Amino acid sequence: MSFEDRKFLLNKLGGIDERWQTSPSAARRIRDMVWDPKGGWRTSGGYELIYTGASSNPWTALGDIESIHWYSEHSGARQHLIIQANGRWYQTLEASKESVDVLVGKGAVSMGTHSTPTSPHARTQSLAWAGWLYLISGTDRPLVFNGRYLQQAGFDTQPPPPAPTFIVDAMYANTQGADVGIGDDSASFWARRYRVSYVNERGQEGPLSEPSAMVSGTNEEDAKTCVGLSVPRGGAHIVARRLYGTHNLLDSDGQLLLEGEAQNFYFMAEIQDNIQTSFEDVQADADLAAVVNPDNFGVWPTGAKYIQSFKNTIFLAGHQNNKVSFSAVGTSEVFPAGNSIRVGDDQSGEFTGMYPTKNALLVFKRNAIHMIKGDQVRGFEAFTLTKTSGCIGPDSIAEVPGMGVMFLGNKGPMLLEGALENTGTPTRVVPLWTPIPDLVERINKGAAIQAQGAVYLSDREYWLAVPMDGSSRNNVVLVYHYDIGAWSYRETMPVGCMVVTGDHREELLFGSNNSGTSAGVFVYSHGSSDKNGTAISPLYETTDIDFGDRYTAVVPETVTAWVIGYGNQDARIQYTVNRNYTQRYSLGSSEDSENQQDTTNDYDVLGTAEWGSSLWYNLRPVPVTFNVYTKDGAPVREFRFEISSDGHMLQLVGAEILASVTASDTKTEPLHIDLVVDRK
Hints:
Largest sheet: 6 strands, antiparallel
Helix content: under 10%
Strand content: 35-45%
Radius of gyration: 34 Å
Shape: elongated
């Protein structure tokens, strides 16, 4: 029987594919590695604290980071990182990161506190709009940050009505003329009601009070009436109040007018403070300004969990089953009672998030996806995109350039692609989890509501932080490399919350959910050599290779890994045969050093070259060869190997397997031929 050596090349290293039968270029595991634009995989970045201004870690006392939010004011001149932790709100100025300061509310310290649920929950949501940052959680009162302090956002109740305190007839007859005072020159009887509204420092006007008690009087010739009013004060977030009044409610015979325009209220005056409580009304009907419609005002919906902006309108969801509320025209904090739209039904489940595109507002529920189209002029209308897939992680929603919107669905990571931007392509939901069923199966669905998603543009990645293996906290990041449509993952990642900075750096920051070992807010970077002191451990493991359509069994002899030479390679190999994962063969560089380098391709690399004596080369692939063995040298049907390293750069661009075959070890085609056709 004749034997001959054959080389099997792996020159196109793909992403993770955990299915039983797949392409030899696929991987079983890719840990802590990033796809390289030139091809292959290299060690991923690490992370370090964003705050380094003190000798001790200022984050330790804060505990787990509940949520983080990016805020930019003055067109990017000042940038803030807003942090929720330990039941309070904090900020650090991004420009310096020199301090972590407690945020309090203007005139109310309690405004700086928030409740922190102990069970898995959706994080506090934020929205930057018109220079302000809105923060809502569904459990605490909504807040707004202006760069200096927190305030209550919107209005939670109607104010009480103004109270008439006195009436003085003929008060202004001699001092201010006959045209000053309440009433009409042609009527001797008059009556009026009043309403008041509150105005906050952002110019948002809250709901009108109920009408006051009617006040009435009689005018004498050339002598009209003055009415004194007691005007209620608002809370600490109120800076002004607006008064409205009716025209005369009586006819010339003194009979009450009950219908039509008689019941309208007209703008009377603005009291530009929240201190004055007395006001004197001396305005004739003709002096009152525009009519006001009380239906155009409303309170902030109690219990709203999700906030987004679309068509210059603020949308809120999560406060009412199957109803989404939207703000009045040109406002961000005024929600008329009639400004709501029905979205979905009880079968579609609870709301789990929203995301705006150019032409539609996506509304996610647990079992369905809907979209809202239209505007304030034409009206808004809701449509159903799908009832077969929904979102279970509100913070997993992120837009991937050139692809669509990714999110964590009931079955795993999903992609919504298509005609959302009027591209002419069909809108559809595409499952992206099919190559990684084992990883998805490990996700704790009971805690998946706190999954975090973000796009890291520098590496062209979508990050999905999820709780795995029974953990109630996110502990693994699934990474989708969207340029090649491939998955990898990263461990030792306590990502409780995540945000991408809105400046030119586009840094990815995350707040730790494990303050016991890694307290604080961290920045991910390729300039970080470890994970806050923990070594980065890159690993690439192939799928089970059956050696194509020619051989039923082979005897593997060597594995040559083509790596980029950095001068500090400590690559090691482990391998298994015939899917016997209980028996793994290990071989490190120290054990087989004589076979680690192809001596015919010696050259100087970074870390080994000497100044003045070595010829400098650009980075290039280095062949690193390992001898591999099987028990008694027996042939095997399938062969799997992994290349890994601890604490050093590993950049794998390809590999080859040298194996011995015999003429009898032939077959016509692989068993999985039908399964691998057309797979990405």
